[in-house]
Structures are given as structure tokens and as C-alpha cells.
């Protein structure tokens, strides 16, 4: 094997000889040399393919073992208080939209208009029914303006009103520092609340930058539905569950 690896040419002849074959009549086909760089057109096509791909967000139907004591909930989540199936635009850090999401969150502090347009296209292809009548977003004390700014621009592009109705009551450790899903759920226990009891009518598009354990979206959806909202359609810019994020 080491002899084969060390060859610069004559690989087929070496293999035939190693298999006790006759390499004398060997004639190599005339093949064009392989390119040393990727075709720009192929790269563009690959990126376009990735940018056409979205991922499902399955709603949670059960609270964690032991429940969430501050919210006084346990067991199954009532169907009328669950989120609907949602969508994530991309995988965190992928070569499609993922790098632009990361740049917006950690470098620019502002998500690009391209991501707004991509989410509009995703929602039109997704076509959730009943259709969202308004837009809100998951709050964050670490990035207080990031998601409201994006969700407001997305709402305008969809021709829908935006309402900031959720608040993060207290700082908690980052979800990625939690050892498991149950700890991630309890890390949120009591940390989110509805600040406006008079919610806009109809189904709502609930927007967040990243989804991993789905507990944040689950709690937000439960709070909104418990306060009288219509169906909750979650939308995340990136799915971080397929790999560690930088958050």
C-alpha cells in the first residue's frame, strides 16, 4: 500500500501486476485532465440548490419530565396550545443561507435584506393554512433589537402588521450550555412572558433566528395561544440542531 501511495504515475500498471496480471498490453484511455478548481457555474448552482432547501420544525407535544414548575405545566401540551409545524430557512453555517445568518448575528448585528426576501419566498412556497395574519418574534436580552428589526421588515414585505408582544423577563444561561433537552426546557421556565394582553387577532408567524431544542418556540407558542392568539406558525432563520452553533 505504501508503494502504491508513493507512485506519481503508473497506478493501473502497478495494480495489475500486484494481481498477477499482464500489464504489457495495457493502454490507457485518452481522458481530459481533471480540473483543479470548481466551476463557477457549478458553485452557483450548488448554492442556489441549498438556498431552495428548507427544514421542518416539528412541534413539541409534551412538556419535559417533571414539567415546568414556574409555568405550572406538565405532561402533554394541550393541542390548542401547541405550535403548528414550522420551517427553518437553512442549516446553521451551511453554504446556502447559513453563512449570511451567522454574519448577521455575530458580525453585522443586522440581518441582510436578502434573508428577508428568502423568507418571503419560503413562506409563499410553504403557504401555511390558515395564513398568518400578523408577525411577532422571540425576544432576547443579549440581542434586543436583532429579531424585532428583522421581523418588522419581514412583516412589511409580507404586507402584515408586526407586534412585539413577548418579553424575556430574566437573563438565563445560553441554551447551548445545558447538558440535555430537559435542562434546556427548565432553563426557560418562567423567563418569557406576554407583555400585551390584547393580542392582534388571527394566526401568527413566530420568528426566531435559530432553533435547536425547540423549547423556546414551544414556550412562546404556549404563551401566545394561552393569551388568545390564533395558530402559531414558527419560522427560524437557521436550524442549529444539526451541529454546534457559535452562540
If you had to describe this structure to a student in words, what would you say it looks like?
The protein has eight helices and seven strands; from the N terminus they run αααββααβαβαββαβ. It is of the alpha/beta class. It has one domain (57-239): Rossmann fold. The strands form two sheets. Strands 1-2-7-6-3 form a five-stranded mixed sheet. A two-stranded antiparallel sheet has the order 4-5. Helix 5 (113-126) crosses helix 6. The two termini are 44 Å apart. Mean pLDDT is 88; it is low at 242-247.
Q: Catalogue the unreliable spans.
A: 242-247
Which topology does CATH recognise? Answer: Rossmann fold
Topology pattern, helix = H, strand = E: HHHEEHHEHEHEEHE
Q: How confident overall, as mean pLDDT?
A: 88
List keywords for this structure.
247 residues; 5-stranded mixed beta sheet; 7 strands; elongated
Note the topology.
Layout: H1 2-5, H2 11-18, H3 40-51, E1 55-57, E2 86-91, H4 98-108, H5 113-126, E3 134-137, H6 146-158, E4 166-168, H7 181-188, E5 192-194, E6 204-211, H8 215-226, E7 232-239
Parallel strand pairs: 2-7, 3-6, 6-7
Antiparallel strand pairs: 1-2, 4-5
Helix pairs in contact: 5-6
